[in-house]
Design brief:
- The protein is α/β, with parallel strands linked by helices and about 240 residues long.
- The chain has a single domain, classed as Rossmann fold, CATH 3.40.50.720.
- The chain is built from eight helices and six strands.
- The chain has a six-stranded parallel sheet, sandwiched between helices.
- Helix 2 packs parallel to helix 3 and helix 3 packs parallel to helix 4.
- The longest helix is centred in the middle third of the chain and has 29 residues.
- The N and C termini lie far apart (about 40 Å).
Length: about 240
């Protein structure tokens, strides 16, 4: 084809500043390490630094973000997962979950995008869940927060497109993390593994790789998308 544009597959993040929440372990830790390996300056935040369910701590966090000169990439990864049917779910637990999973990303993104707009560049990735696409008993509050995060992602992608800021979500399937192992029995994990077409649980590297791609300059045209990384589980459930 004539006039075909050449693609630059440079995965370097040199001179890029990345902010990752929930970075002390699991998916967030792997994401942070991959960005560092690829040359980025990485700012990591976790519950060890701030209580994301506390309005006081969120205010302190936003003030901290305001002092940072430039943030090119934001990864909203911090989250909690409670399993209990709606009829028994306490308002206190509900508010904690919503503050961490939805309110914190809202406020952090609001602070960060003001910096991105100034430089007419940005990549925002919200880590959602396969439960933003399918539901399970006992997950009404968790799914509500993750469905909300997808709506937030899609709306932001439209609002920020004119500033060259791409906004996407990644929804992990069943990933072999401490959280998964604490919430599922060995029998349940074995059953799920057998249902996944690739016949294995995902690992943190699988999610980090997807984050790296969507955050990189290789991606110039994907925005407002929810990328499900689940080894084909959803496709299998649709059959």
């Amino acid at each position: 084809m004539k006039n075909q544009e050449k693609t630059d597959y440079n995965l370097s993040f040199k001179n890029k500043t990345v902010l990752v929440t929930g970075a002390s372990r699991g998916i967030g830790f792997n994401i942070s390490e991959d960005f560092k390996y690829l040359g980025a300056k990485v700012i990591t935040l976790s519950s060890k630094d701030y209580n994301f369910s506390s309005d006081y701590h969120l205010k302190k966090l936003i003030n901290y973000i305001k002092k940072i000169k430039k943030i090119d990439i934001l990864i909203n990864n911090a989250g909690v997962n409670f399993s209990e049917e709606n009829i028994n779910f306490s308002i206190k637990k509900y508010e904690k979950l919503m503050n961490i999973n939805l309110k914190a990303p809202f406020l952090i993104t609001q602070a960060v995008t003001k910096k991105m707009i100034k430089y007419k560049y940005g990549r925002i990735i919200n880590i959602s869940s396969i439960l933003s696409e399918r539901v399970r008993i006992g997950k009404s509050s968790y799914s509500s927060s993750k469905f909300g995060l997808i709506g937030f992602t899609k709306t932001l992608s439209v609002e920020l497109a004119k500033y060259n800021i791409l906004v996407n979500a990644i929804s992990p399937g069943v990933i072999a993390t401490e959280m998964t192992k604490s919430m599922l029995t060995k029998q349940q994990i074995k059953k799920i593994r057998n249902e996944i077409p690739l016949k294995r649980l995902g690992n943190t590297k699988d999610i980090a790789s997807a984050v790296i791609y969507l955050s990189s300059d290789i991606n110039q045209y994907i925005t407002g998308h929810n990328l499900v990384v689940d080894g084909g589980l959803l496709s299998c459930l649709n059959v």
